[in-house]
Design a protein that fits this description.
193 residues, mainly alpha
Length: 193
């Protein structure tokens, strides 16, 4: 993850925009995902409304990062459920920023963070981290880690991750969203602790 290059300068942001504009007009890569996931095709249109919603999702992801702290009450399933929330908020920030409609994401991605990462990476997100990809597979769909779902006592496979590994992976992902979207960090996160 140390080889990630932030896209925060105007030139770098222009390069990201150019990459988005250079996607094939037939959306062949996206069309393949739409087919795999049984989703209806959607035209990506960047709007001010989408940008504002993207910023709000990014800030919510930062807020929910607190639920991953060492001293947060709850067990391992609660931690993984919260991890799914953070990941989904962060990735949806990127998806909304590049023009996916929120209603489309709710209908066709829902709580499947693996789908969010796949769609993000096809739209210039550029996050190639095998361990993060493995983590989102473990989490997806993240409702399976909800306490009510686990009342049967049977827990899904957690992939052997530790809390510190998850915190590191999710922190890197949220930071990458910040780099790619260029959103300002929330004041709460920006303040020294």
């Amino acid at each position: 993850m140390n080889n990630l290059v932030p896209a925060t300068s105007p030139d770098e942001m222009a390069a990201v925009s150019a990459a988005l504009n250079s996607l094939p007009h037939d959306n062949s890569a996206l069309a393949a995902l739409w087919k795999i996931y049984g989703a209806e095709p959607v035209r990506l249109v960047r709007t001010q409304e989408g940008r504002k919603l993207s910023l709000a999702r990014y800030h919510r992801a930062e807020e929910f990062m607190g639920s991953l702290a060492h001293d947060t009450p709850g067990g391992w399933p609660d931690f993984l459920y919260s991890t799914g929330i953070v990941v989904q908020l962060a990735l949806s920030s990127h998806l909304l920023d590049v023009g996916f409609p929120d209603s489309w994401c709710a209908r066709h991605i829902s709580l499947n963070v693996d789908r969010s990462l796949a769609y993000a990476n096809l739209t210039a997100f550029g996050y190639d981290c095998a361990e993060t990809a493995r983590l989102v597979q473990v989490l997806a769909p993240y409702w399976k880690w909800n306490r009510r779902h686990l009342m049967s006592g049977k827990h899904p496979d957690d992939g052997g991750f530790t809390g510190d590994q998850v915190r590191s992976l999710v922190g890197g992902l949220v930071d990458h969203v910040w780099h790619v979207t260029g959103h300002a960090r929330s004041r709460r996160r920006a303040m020294p602790s």
